[in-house]
Amino acid sequence: MTELTEQEREFAREAAATPRPEGSVRVAGIDCGTNSIRLMIADVDEAGLHVRVPRIMDVIRLGQDVDRNHAFAPVALERAYASVARFAEIIRLAGGVDRIHFVATSATRDASNREEFEDEVERLLGARPEVIPGTQEARLSFLGATSHLSAQQLRDKAPLLVVDLGGGSTEMVLGGTGEQASEVAQSISMNIGSVRMSERHLLSDPATAEQIAQAQDDIDGVLHDALRTVNLEKTRTLIGVSGTITTLSLAAQGEKVYSRELVDGVQVSIENAKKAADMILSLSTKDMESWPVIHPGRRDVIGGGVLVYSRLLTLVNALTRKAGHEITSYTASERGLLEGIILDAGRSMLASR
Description:
Protein name: Exopolyphosphatase
Region (Disordered): 1-24
Number of helices: 14
Pfam families: Ppx-GppA
CATH architecture of the largest domain: 2-Layer Sandwich
GO molecular function: pyrophosphatase activity
Order of helices and strands: HEEEHHEHHEHHEEEHHEHHEHHEH
Domain Ppx/GppA phosphatase N-terminal: 41-344
């Protein structure tokens, strides 16, 4: 197991020393995606979510070659197990929790040897992964991305389109118009993500114009099919979540260093985001070393991700312009699936009391 950093130990000690609010439950949420794995510990009560151990992320590339081989690579599993063991230690040092909710998404859905992965995670963590379908991933992403908004704020911004761009899949969720403000109206999970598109198409460093064109055709075809399920032209507010989108958003503002404080809630023009996407696609992984805003674990796959988002932004802009309410910007958010995982688990526990 990789040693915990001093900051991680301090987060855990502070959590252990923090009393739980009356009537709350403490949940450790783990979001295991195609490229990264994240942990957060929070108390959940009727007022919402109170973070005790802020998000800790490791880039593990669990989905390495899954698009081609439909199975986890042994080296990818070893990286995942090392992170799970670290997370288990953080949870222990934090004084334990009422529930550990480990959610696995796109790569695990596609892997033929997922049972081996699930068994070992359960042995290390004491909790078995829940491999959720894309529809549930979409619902939880919407819940997490809008968790800081009141019911009235949600309705004022509705219909909201939340886009969660992962390593293996991208979720689009339209909501905020139902009887319950957090209710999802339409959603889809598409098998286009940063790792999947990069491994499938962007094989040079940097990608060639021909490779980018082939990837665009692939992405545009998937987005066109998605229009049968999600009416993008209804969008009034666009929220983008995930490391790819927040990294792109910071780059669009000319930031060289990643900062959650600078990116969470910031409005980014579609025009600037698309220019930043083109710039990132033109860089080699070596060139990206001078852009520390791009995490080293994303450098070889961020091109596929920003291309997906650029094509999606182009489509949303065109459809809403035609509908008479053109969307020209989006809100970048640090909140997403992980917060949704914790809120959903916590509320379920509270309801069963």
